[in-house]
From TrEMBL:
GO cellular component term, pick one: membrane
PROSITE patterns reported in the protein's UniProt record: MFS
Pfam families, per database record: MFS_1 (PF07690)
Membrane topology reported for the UniProt record: Multi-pass membrane protein
InterPro entries: MFS, MFS_dom, MFS_Na/Anion_cotransporter, MFS_trans_sf
Domain (Major facilitator superfamily (MFS) profile) ranges: 13-424
Protein name as it appears in the record: Major facilitator superfamily MFS_1
CDD domains the UniProt entry points to: MFS_ExuT_GudP_like
Organism (species): Pedobacter heparinus (strain ATCC 13125 / DSM 2366 / CIP 104194 / JCM 7457 / NBRC 12017 / NCIMB 9290 / NRRL B-14731 / HIM 762-3)
Compartment(s) where it occurs, according to its Swiss-Prot or TrEMBL record: Membrane
Entry GO MF terms: hexuronate transmembrane transporter activity
Amino acid sequence: METTKIGNYRWIVCGLLFFATTINYIDRQVIGLLKPTLEKEFHWTEVDYGYIVMAFAGMYALGYVVFGSFIDKVGTKIGYSISVIVWSIAAMLHAVVKGTVGFGMARGLLGLSEAGNFPAGVKAVAEWFPKKERALATGIFNSGTSIGAVVAPILVPWILGIYGWQEAFWITGALGFIWLIFWWIFYEIPSKQKRLKKAEYDFIHSDPDDELQEKPVKLKWIQLLGLRQTWVFIVGKVLTDPIWWFFLFWLPAYFADTFALDLKKPSLHLAVVYAATTFGSIGGGYLSSYFIKRGWPVLKARKTTLLIVAIAVVPIFFAQFAPNIWVAVAIISIATAAHQAWSANIFTIVSDIVPKQAVSSVVGIGGMSGSIASTLFPLLVGSLLAYYKNIGNIGAAYNILFIICGCAYFLAWFIIQMLTKKMKPVDFSNL
């Protein structure tokens, strides 16, 4: 009833962010799905493919800082548009390159530009939603990562079978340009959006401490490192992003090694695990928004939700005792869903504790930090798996990794709790 009275234009904005995030994840997954075809076409070795993946990962980390600062300077509409334009061009360039170096360059450009998605998305949510709805809105648009992970394995092989691998890059890359049409038609900051009713505008800016600061400002991200607010997000990303990438890249191997899952066939088990992340993303956003609507202080609601999520990951300790693959799927699905619930709230907490002008910059700094940690964590994963595989006990390696997964969120929550105990509002005049 409330939505009917005040209007729902802000949810159209949320829908745009959801579709952009879905396209973002489709574009980044294409090369992995085409890997067997491209290996034959270009005679790649695993080392060649590894360099291409590293090009994306390294530039993605850099892109968080580049686009985070850029979006705060030029505004969400222009900054997001440039990010999508560049990543769409980069995705399509994969169709015309002729070798490993070319793919590495195209992949690097894709990583650099795709990193603009979350700084822009979180900033847009801060501009368009009051604090009591931000986590839900973030959870919805963040669920695009899960939908993209489900759509790509269906769409890309279909295009490959009918047209060819070049067309897979052309068609998926073009999706971003279609999205841009709707973005330019429907997006403006609330103060400039003529379609927005006054009742909804007042609701969007109903927070007592809302500053209505929508003008871009110039901020040096190095100065932002002196703020506790920035470190809340850095900690929340550095300690948990590597866990998410472990879930993405090593779960198939875990199921194959432990339960002899045939990875050459479509896997319902993996589909269930990754589908669960959608419910986690939206559910985690809903939970903290529910607490706020019940009258809880915003920061208390976010941190309580993060604690609940950290507890939900703990059962992954017991994956080693799973009697069959479906029990393991159930346990791990809870953990992956919990991660996405964590992600929805850790992104939202930035817009709660940082003024709107600095949201993208802080998201950029934390995102870069999380990406760097995610690049280093596989060194530990690979070393553990290699050692225990050599002694014929690879299950022990996975057990150690699952224990790390279960502890990481509690450690992150504890440090966040310490950082926010005596945290003061940001005063830009002191920066």
